[in-house]
Design brief:
The structure holds two protein chains of two kinds.
Chain A lengths: L43 H15 L5 H9 L3 H6 L2 H15 L4
Helix pairs in contact in A: 1-4, 2-4
Chain B lengths: L7 E4 L18 E12 L1 H5 L7 E10 H5 L5 E7 L3 E3 L2
Antiparallel strand pairs in B: 1-2, 1-5, 2-3, 3-4
Classes of the chains: A mainly alpha, B mainly beta.
């Protein structure tokens, strides 16, 4: 899945472009909508993605910093269209692919 | 360098092109050290698989909201690794 390669999208030579995730302080996204139903997951697959990420980090397959980096490397179009755990899944897929885990 | 509370610091400007924990909205702005929260591995190194990552002091730094966004009478605090900062004098 989305892996923009070393350096990430828009961060090639001579460029200085923040990654798409860094939207703090930007206007135009509207108010933050909070899920206040107290449920951590809203589908079974979300819980599985959460558990998978934790298990892979606990086994040393990737670190939390690498995981955050992989989320930030998702292409802007995909990132903005994806839900929270869809981003997690895309990052896990990219890291496993990059590290040759099959 | 270990920066005492009250030190004026400028957050690094520009984008490093890799994972970093310094939010864009403070880059290039001048703030003030509130406290040092200890020494921690640099996420920028960890994200690139550099072993071992550099270990640096992490500071709580406060910025006037009005300076960041042109309005607001509150302050905004961020956690910043030492290499994200330079002394503003």
């Amino acid at each position: 899945m989305a892996d923009a390669g070393e350096g990430g999208h828009g961060a090639g030579k001579g460029q200085s472009v923040s990654r798409v995730h860094d939207v703090g302080g930007q206007s135009g996204f509207g108010p933050v909508v909070r899920d206040d139903d107290g449920q951590p997951f809203h589908a079974d697959w979300e819980a599985r993605v959460y558990a998978l990420s934790g298990a892979l980090r606990a086994r040393g397959v990737f670190t939390t910093d690498e995981f955050r980096d992989a989320i930030e490397r998702i292409s802007p179009q995909e990132y903005l269209a994806a839900g929270y755990y869809e981003r997690w899944l895309a990052a896990i897929e990219a890291l496993l692919d990059r590290k040759g885990v099959r | 360098m270990s920066l005492p509370p009250g030190t004026r610091v400028r957050a690094r400007a520009g984008d490093p092109g890799h994972h970093t924990r310094l939010p864009r909205y403070v880059r290039g702005h001048t703030g003030e050290i509130v406290e040092c929260t200890g020494e921690w591995p640099l996420p920028d190194d960890g994200a690139r698989g550099l072993v071992p990552p550099r270990v640096e002091p992490v500071y709580t730094v406060r910025f006037p909201a009005a300076q960041l966004w042109g309005e607001g009478d509150h302050v905004v605090t961020v956690e910043a690794w030492e290499s994200y900062l330079e002394e503003a004098g």
